[in-house]
Target: Mg-protoporphyrin IX chelatase
Amino acid sequence: MTDVRYPFTAIVGMADLRLGLLLNAVSPAVGGVLVRGEKGTAKSTMVRALAGLLPEIATVDGCRFACDPAAPDPQCPDGPHHAPAAGERPAHLVELPVGVSEDRVVGSLDLERALAEGVKAYEPGLLARAHRGVLYIDEVNLLQDHLVDLLLDAAAMGRSYVEREGVSVRHAARFLLVGTMNPEEGELRPQLLDRFGLTVEIAATRDAAERAEVVRRRLAYDADPAGFADRFAGQERALAERITAARALLPEVELTDGALRQITAVCAAFEVDGLRADIVMARTAVALAAWAGRREVLEEDVRKAAQLALPHRRRRNPFDAPGLDEEQLDRTLQEHAPEDEDPEDDGGGPDGDGPDGGGQGPDGGGPDGGAPAPGDAPEDSVASTDPGSEPAAAQPGEAVPPQGPGGGRESAPVAAGDPYRTRLFAVQGTGKGAQGRRSPAETDGGHTIRSRRPQGRLAHLHLSATLRAAAPHQVARGRQERALVLHRDDFREQVRRGRESNLVLFVVDASGSMAARQRMTAVKGAVLSLLMDAYQRRDKIGMVTFRGTGAELALPPTSSVEVGAARLEQLPTGGRTPLAAGLLRAHEVLRVERMRDPNRRPLLVVVTDGRATGGRDAVAQSHRAAGLLAAQGIASVVLDCESGPVRLGLSRTLAGHLGAAAVTLDELRAEGVASLVRDSRSSAPRKAA
Model:
């Protein structure tokens, strides 16, 4: 395993990402950068390479908090520093693992000294180590929300505040914050997105020659890392010197009133919330000017700052991709250009501006996403009382939709209705799954409710309970001086209560009986609303659809709710109703997921009108399949999609076999739905251990 980093200047393409990282290296006050992109696009490689370009820092000898000898932190826990001895070292690159605990991030009481010496001492965390360096969070979207809040607060204030376990500490924590994520694995909440200064969207190039160069360089690096690094050593030195020069120039850059008015006008035009965007844009524009070697912010700096700082702040719906309307941006800049400047001939866009040719900002355009207007789908025959009846045949002169896989008519996908807020559906009992916002659980990050003897490896020591357990035995154990005499039986661990995320598996009826346009629009709107609820509660989601002759796993369990919304939008309808096949496929999916993640409890949401066709005893088969799921103790909800003046109550019958609540589309919004799952589960079989 080599310690030689891949050179920053050897990375091909990705001009915006390169520029965003360099601007933060010049001015950490910009607030960090969030890198969004598909897997395998060298996100992590570029971040690690940046650390090698940062200038060495002068530190106080022996200070664990990297105090600058020229201006020591007066609140440094290792201080005060009077005429300290100094040395130099490289800036640290601190990588934050996804499973990190809060005490590892901010630091905590030094338990070894507390128990052995009886003194209260602070053990620094990763924030202290990252001070004046780079804090890198790979897969930041998978990090627990309370940790992301904590990190972003420290990055914004430049200081970490620790109040825990009797320790009260303040120390400087200024660092270049970089987060990378693959949107397919789940999104960050909009509130957290807003806390990152800049965002960059990246994707692998589709140019064959450029891809070949990427592969060629990577193979050369793997074969001889040191030799490959030597090839780019000159470019690396030149870039490092440019960063140092830009840092020195930064305090001299003037943000004119005209440029400031353009910044605030752009933020107002794009209706961003709060004033953080204005501040970040101003800092970014100043850093751009310093990077270009200028002492005044120009319109091109404001434009580029907007392209980097605003796309992720324009989001209004969790399922909307970040983006920026370039025409609106140019129009706003021209309308608010300083009177002594000529806004014409500015190129109409950012091509070529910026030191690295980083003129291609994230494109917020793309396809509309709306489904094409399909022909009217045939309505259900509401006069029929046969659960196995199929939609009526087309009338003379009526357009015949394409045939589905089961021989029935297939309708083109229809758009979902507007999403709305749904009530909470929670799994009964107390789980032990990953932290989230749905069902009660014992979690690592919840509030402490009691102590207990350790069950397995001691993870979270309950200090006061441990001391109380050991105190009565100190005389008998021959305690000397201040040190405590502890035995294994004295240790107690914290029991923390919070909420967990669940696996919400949707089983959606896409058969001909659901194909009426108005009904399917309402059904998709309801499912989209539940998907949004899952997004907000940090759940994993999956989707099984059934129609024609069988069922398919339309969306394997994933944290990317956006993918689920896209699959729902594309869902066609038509054919018979193999309800039993859909339930059995759901049973198989949950069985596999239980083996992969036994602590994540499932919530099954069956979206159907309750009809079952496609074979002899289709209704009885669906009831047997429902009983199989109920016997496994799986919490379920049936979303009753039956409509019309004549209702057969088939969904409620199915819900009875599942041991589930049956909720109509109207009741999905109503008060009291939160208790339906719990009420239905109280009489259903308990989930198997």
